[in-house]
Amino acid sequence: MIRMNRQSTSTAESVRRSYDRLAEDYDRRWNAYVDATLEVVLQVTCPNQSERVLDVACGTGALGERIAKRWPAVQVIGVDVSSAMLRQASTKVIAGETHWCQAESDRLPFHEDSFDLIICANSFHFFRNPSTTLTEVHRLLRPGGSFILVDWCDDYLSCKLCSLWLRLFDPAFHRMYSTNACKSLLTGTNFEIVDSTRFRISWLWGLMRFVCRRPR
Fold it and tell me: Which fold has domain 2-213?
């Protein structure tokens, strides 16, 4: 596991503490949700064998595990603020070249143009500085590279109600976005949106998926 020395913000600490507590039981507790949402990611993921993939807020490494199984020659690097989640990721036997790195989403410790594909799944609602995170993603993505974003969608009434509850009781939560708000953030960071869609995986969870490109 690669570690990054940093000065944590109170927000990052809230997220870290929440997921440090959840880490040991996370895969069992959220297995069905993770399977459903990551399958939507993999539907639009088709890396070449020589590509480098960055998984932002990788959690226990579920996406990296799936990518390595389908495309074992691809190099996957997963970053997350929670060291406990990364420890869970490091216990998985994953084929191929996969690495884990502790870092915050708005301060990613890599050189510009380092990745062919960057993915952020199920975590954008935690980021206090979404524009800064997207700027970091844009910096790290090579020209012509792809960015896939999947997250909860505020267009659904059930998610609006869930958002209200989380604002009151979960200090790690920041906000959900509508598809239009998310589009504005992406285009405001100079991403070209190739495809966007909304979907449900249950009566409660409505999500959105964006496939973007950094223009050449």
Answer: Rossmann fold (3.40.50)
**Tens-place pLDDT, residues 144-167:** 999 999 999 999 999 999 999 999
For the chain, which residues make up each domain, given as ranges? 2-213
Lowest mean pLDDT, pick from 5-19, 48-62, 151-165: 5-19
- Helices 31-42 and 10-29 pack at an angle, to 10 degrees, of 100
The residue type at 144 = G
Does the reported pTM lie above 0.70?
yes
- What is the model's pLDDT at position 150? 98
What is the structure's pLDDT at 20? 80
Q: What whole-number distance in Å separates Cα of residue 211 and Cα of residue 150?
A: 9
Closest CA to 189 of 149, 136, 134: 134
Angle between helices 83-90 and 10-29 (to 10 degrees): 30
**Which whole-number Å values give the CA distances from 83 to 93, 128, 186, 195, in the listed order?**
18, 19, 28, 33
